[in-house]
Amino acid sequence: MAKKTINDFRQMVEKGEKIVYLTAYDYLTAKMQEKAGVDMILVGDSLGMVSLGYDTTFPVTMDDMVRHCQAVRRGAPNTFIVGDMPYLSYQTSNEQAIANAGRMVKEAGVDCIKLEGGGPMIAERITAIQQSGILVMGHIGLTPQFMGQIGGYRAQGRSANAAMKLVREAKAVEAAGAFSILVEGVPAAVGKAITERAGIPILGIGAGSYTHGQLLIYADMVGMYDNFTPKFVKKYANVGEVLTNAFKEYTEEVRKGQFPNDDEHTYKMSEAEVKEFLAELDR
Ligand code: KIV
Fold first, then answer.
1. What is the mean pLDDT of residues 39-50?
2. Using CA atoms, how far apart are residues 144 and 117, in angstroms rounded to an integer?
3. 124 among annotated binding-site residues
């Protein structure tokens, strides 16, 4: 399958076809997702929690993101990849935002970058990055890099005023030049209102069923990340349990001397060579 482009996503929206979007942070997962036929992969800064064991996304660096985007690109060479801009990689100036977005493209080969927020400063960054030739996906609603200001990891846009603010932010992000917007953690009515008013693809994570596409964090939907599971996640598998059981079985077998079985799990040597080898040892 050829890698999808901005034109394919626009056509999918026109035809009413849903865009399938998942996060990945490593080569093997990306390889499986490409095989499964997902349309888009996000190397999210959720990397911080899912792969690096931090409590938040704040400590994630540009070097972390570039390294993991490279691995995902190697695993999914024919899938549209979005690289997430980590905290303070774009907030301080347009120049810094362009330079860091450029690293994602030049060093990791991503197709698009994503950044959080819907205020005037973020709109300015989106314009600057997209004018340098890089596709930008906006991200509004529950934006973890604004955790302190939005009062923690909680749904957004639940009052009429807050919902109107999000609709206005979506319009501002679109006007700034984003090619698409990810809307996170809002009631379905808000996801629907934003989608119906948008001229660009709207992806949702925990934003109801009306958005043009759906994103989930892969480690949530396969049951690997169990520190916290948001309400909007559906678990399609329990890989965490499968892996833990496999690790337990291996632990027991090694301790009991049941693994390895030398008839099955070791390299063969002819009897003549073994005989000669033993004779040499005794000499
Ligand atoms: O970092 C990430 O994976 C994200 C999603 C939570 C939307 O930005």
1. 98
2. 10
3. no
Give the Cα separation of 113 and 105 in Å (integer). Answer: 8
Q: What pLDDT, in 10s, does the model give residues 89-108? A: 999 999 999 999 999 999 99
Query: How many other CB atoms are there within 10 angstroms of residue 211's CB atom?
Result: 25
Counting atoms of ligand 1 from 1, which one is nearest the CA of 23?
3
Q: Is 124 a catalytic residue?
A: no
Express each pLDDT in 144-163 by its tens digit. Answer: 999 999 988 899 999 999 99
Residue 113 DSSP class: E
Q: Determine which residue's CA is closest to atom 6 belonging to ligand 1.
A: 46
Task: Label residue 207 exposed, middle or buried (CB < 10 Å: 0-12, 13-18, 19+).
Answer: buried
pLDDT at 35: 98
State residue 228's pLDDT score: 87
State the distance from the centre of ligand 1 to the C-alpha of 276, rounded, in angstroms. 61
Q: Whose CA is nearest to atom 3 of ligand 1?
A: 44
Is 226 a known ligand-binding residue?
Answer: no
Which of the four pLDDT bands, split at 50, 70 and 90, describes residue 1?
A: confident
**Active-site annotation holder among 184, 241, 253, 264:** 184
93 labeled part of a ligand binding site: no
Per-residue pLDDT of 121-147, as tens digits, reads 999 999 999 999 999 999 999 999 999
Pocket of ligand 1 (CB under 6 A): 23, 42, 44-46, 84, 139, 182, 184, 205, 217
What are the CA-CA distances from residue 219 to residues 18, 70, 109, 134 (Å)?
21, 19, 23, 28
> Residue 72 in contact with residue 109, Cβ under 8 Å?
no
Kindly report the protein residue whose alpha carbon is nearest to atom 5 of ligand 1: 44
